[in-house]
Design a protein that fits this description.
By secondary structure, the chain is of the alpha/beta class. It is 36% helix and 19% strand. It starts with 12 loop residues before the first helix and ends in a 10-residue tail after the last helix. The structure holds S-adenosylmethionine and iron/sulfur cluster.
Length: 461
């Protein structure tokens, strides 16, 4: 098998077994994108209504909008279906109230509005939130702000609002253009509507990212390639291609035949296929899952959401100030009750210890496809990378997933197929155990759903 750079990746059964042993539990489908560790750390401590400790200087802002027009069976995000205008208006009032926590004039590095589906909000409501953000905070630097959207919800009113406030990028979920696949996963838009939305977004001058998923039930490589090529021809700037990830919230497991499950051999095959498809369409791989059109225009986008301090507002949103991560309450009802009464919406916190910061360093290098530079590590932590990670490093080297260039540790062509899993393999045992537990729960739920087809994704309250 050849990677897009012409490097050959030998995927014999023996090699696959070696890789499987080296990756160990990391192989079990990641619960959350590993490069965001420790934002998804398991060891949160209950700390209801604790106030976030401000840190001076600029920070990023994440806003969570949970509303969606349908419930995709693969989705594990905090989202709500079926709310009407009064609920949306109340939620938006809550967001605006919570935003008052930011000191007026705070420098804003990068805004990311995610969900759910932010454009499920009527344009005027989303506009009111954006208006408050840019009145209260002062954008600095050149980072591009993003709002997530879906094909059936994004309107011309939304686009005008984005232009007015300086939002430069949209990220639209499409997942597949194949009607059978869309039906199986319960998406309520067709391919025509998705392509029409792409055209409108590109014509509006915004940078456009589209999300696709591979490994969905009923999806073949030919279908994926045709989707990628069709989308590339519409002039979008990047495609984020996720392999299907499953956990206890993803109802899709009940529709999956054993041959749909992404074991190592199928995952490798898909990853190599996605890389080749992207390269053939003129896209370069930026992270394990993000492929950018090879143009200066597309290269303008830099994702800095994982770096520096960040305020997160809305249901379940996470903030990070200094060494502390704060997580808002997962229930919209409790979230609103708190912010409406002027109290902190935070429910849990996590303090980043030295070990967590070291893992974060690995995630911010190998996890995004960059080398680990030994001198940078030593300057950050005061001792050698090998003092902390010699065991996983040797294991990854034996499996030909990383190579040691002396001053730095790089991913090999095979390792580049698994940016995310190689990073996971460096995690401490307690986090691997947590991932393993999540995976086991998901699999048990999948089995019980398979024998009880009436069960659906539990609603979020
Ligand atoms: C919050 S949604 C984006 C916007 C919008 N809600 C939509 O779906 O059109 C973020 C993206 O996460 C991805 N995603 C959600 N659940 C996933 C899963 N179980 N495995 C892989 N990707 C998933 C989808 O590609 C989705 O577009
Ligand atoms: S994938 Fe997007 S539209 Fe589908 S349920 Fe999740 S957040 Fe909503």
């Amino acid at each position: 098998m050849q990677t897009p750079n012409g490097e050959s990746v030998k995927l014999t059964q023996a090699n696959l077994e070696r890789i499987a042993v080296a990756l160990g539990t990391a192989l079990h489908t990641p619960y959350a994108p590993p490069h965001v560790y420790p934002m998804s750390a398991p060891a949160f401590t209950s700390n209801p209504q604790i106030e976030r400790q401000r840190e001076p200087g600029p920070h990023g802002l994440y806003i969570h909008v949970p509303f969606c027009n349908y419930s995709c069976s693969f989705c594990f995000y905090a989202r709500r279906i079926g709310d009407g205008l009064p609920e949306m208006e109340r939620y938006v009032r809550g967001l605006r109230r919570e935003l008052e926590w930011a000191e007026p004039g705070t420098p804003l590095t990068q805004l990311y509005v995610g969900g759910g589906t932010p454009t499920a909000l009527p344009a005027e409501l989303l506009d009111a939130v954006l208006g408050d953000v840019f009145t209260r905070m002062k954008p600095e630097g050149k980072l591009i702000h993003t709002v997530e959207c879906s094909p059936e919800s994004v309107s011309d009113g939304h686009l005008k609002s984005f232009a007015r406030h300086g939002v430069g990028r949209v990220s639209m979920g499409i997942q597949s253009l194949n009607q059978e696949v869309l039906d199986i996963v319960n998406r309520d838009h067709g391919s025509g509507q998705a392509l029409e939305a792409c055209d409108r977004l590109v014509a509006s001058g915004l940078m456009v990212n589209v999300d696709l998923i591979y490994g969905l039930p009923g999806q073949s490589e030919a279908v994926f390639r045709s989707d990628f090529e069709t989308l590339a021809a519409r002039g979008i700037h990047s495609i984020t291609a996720y392999n299907l990830r499953i956990n206890e919230r993803t109802a899709v497991v009940q529709d999956m035949a054993p041959t749909d499950q992404l074991d190592l051999a199928r995952l490798v095959r898909w990853r190599a296929f996605v890389q080749q498809t992207a390269a053939a369409a003129g896209f370069v791989q930026k992270t394990w899952h993000r492929f950018e059109r090879n143009t200066p225009e597309a290269a303008r986008y830099e994702d800095k959401t994982g770096a520096g301090n960040q305020l997160g507002i809305g249901q379940s949103a996470r903030s990070r100030f200094g060494s502390t991560i704060y997580c808002n309450h997962a229930s919209v009802a409790v979230y609103l009750e708190r912010v409406e009464n002027g109290r902190s919406a935070v429910e849990e916190t996590f303090h980043l210890g030295e070990e967590d910061r070291r893992i974060r360093f690995v995630g911010h290098s190998l996890g995004v496809g960059k080398p680990i530079v030994r001198e940078a590590y030593r300057q950050t932590f005061g001792h050698a990378f090998d003092d902390d990670f010699s065991e996983p490093l040797e294991r990854m080297k034996r499996a030909d997933l990383v190579e040691d260039a002396g001053d730095a540790v790089h991913l090999t062509p095979t390792g580049r197929l698994f940016y995310d899993l190689v990073t996971l393999a460096f995690y401490p045992q307690r986090i691997k155990d947590w991932l393993e537990e999540r995976h086991a729960i998901a699999m048990r739920k999948g089995q019980s759903r398979a024998t009880n087809p009436g069960t659906v994704v539990p609603g979020l309250s």
